[in-house]
Amino acid sequence: MSARPAGLALGPLLQVCGLLLIGLALAMLIPMLADLAVGHEDWEVFLASAALTLFVGAALVLANRGADFRALTMRQVFMLTTLAWTTTSAFAALPLAFSALDLSLADAVFEAVSGITTTGSTVITGLDTAPPGILLWRGILQWLGGIGIVVTAVAILPVLSVGGMQLFRSESSDRSEKVLPRSAQIASAIGGVYVGLTLACLLTYWWLGMTLFEATVHAMTTVATGGYSTSDASIGHFASPGMEWAATLFMAAGGVPFVLYLQALRGRPGPLLRDIQVRWYFAVLAVASLLLTVWLIRVQAIEPLEAMRSAAFTAASIMTGTGYSSIDYGQWGTFPIILLFFLKCTGGCTGSTTGGIKMFRFVVLYQVARMQMARLVQPSIVFKMTYNGRVIGEDTAISVMAFFFVFAVSFTTVAGLLAALGLDFLTAMSASVTALANVGPGLGPIIGPAGHFGDLPEAAKWVLSAAMLLGRLELFTVLVLLTPHFWRS
User: Fold this and answer.
1) What's the pLDDT score for residue 181?
2) Number of alpha carbons in the 13 Å side-chain half-sphere of residue 344
């Protein structure tokens, strides 16, 4: 009989999950107060959900109070990362499942997972008349998920060397640690930047004409690049060019590594200006916006300024994975659909709130391809791959290429499962990449910007919920738990 693997004690993991649940329970009190203020019966649902979540969280903390979670092993961190996201998603679904919206279990879990992973896909219709507590809870989930993504990307994934994330550690986190030695200080400082950006976005939306409630929800979902709105028509509901430009600005800002913001605020703007993935990110965003603008002017005969605004807004929304919509871009034609499908996969920068493959992996892949072509021309010369002036190790290049392979296999698998469940080709393909890249709306009449995911089969929603978590946790973090080697001593 094989021995139990060393370093897999569950006590520290359960204690951390308990602390997260306590925080989630306290967050539920905010939408409870919102519903109580307007006299909506859902305040009781939020109170009961908060009580249950608080009870379970406190029980986990007290039952494992002797565990030391400050010195976790590598295996424990892998397990904790997946366990934390799945546990919080499950309890976050409680208010949705028992609210007046009368959602099924699959719908409630899908909505909660979509919120906390900042994907933004939704099964809910009638948002314009939905109770304020639910609207606020959806925004809070995305806001909490957004800061969770940044902390995970900066503090956890680099340690695990998942998919080349160790390169980001050497480029950003290590430099920050010279200013803020403790990882807890880094997380709190990044949290301060996150809160500041949210407040700036809130005040901008409020100044441009949103109510304070609408501005609060949209600020949380914009900076988190989540995309949940208070209206079925999303940002298009407000019919305000100023709001679209503001949303474009803050969505694009959400796609930049927050560690670089922290360095800039501490008097070191150089890394933010020189970082190669940031340059690639804005270059791709600018080129995509330009191509869409030209297409809308020449093919759709849209007035230039309106075309520029719609193109920039849509490109930023899709590339950052926010998923806001101001117009049904599914009616723009074949070329925009193909371009937007590509943008869904690219995503923003590592260490931001965005989803997708992430720009730094494309930078590394380009360096690998360039070096290979150079070797074909001059095989006797030694070439070095660099990233921000630093040499890229072979292990980083291999992990990045492995990520592309695993992403392709995961995409094909999820799309195949959805097709087997009865979804048409376009819906299955776009839903798969939307979930894995944490984008939000898909393509086509069913799940496109003018549709929603509510009409999909229940089984398809469970598949997509799993895919959203898989994509948010960078694939390897979850898939490594399925390998026999992980569980061997």
Assistant:
1) 41
2) 28
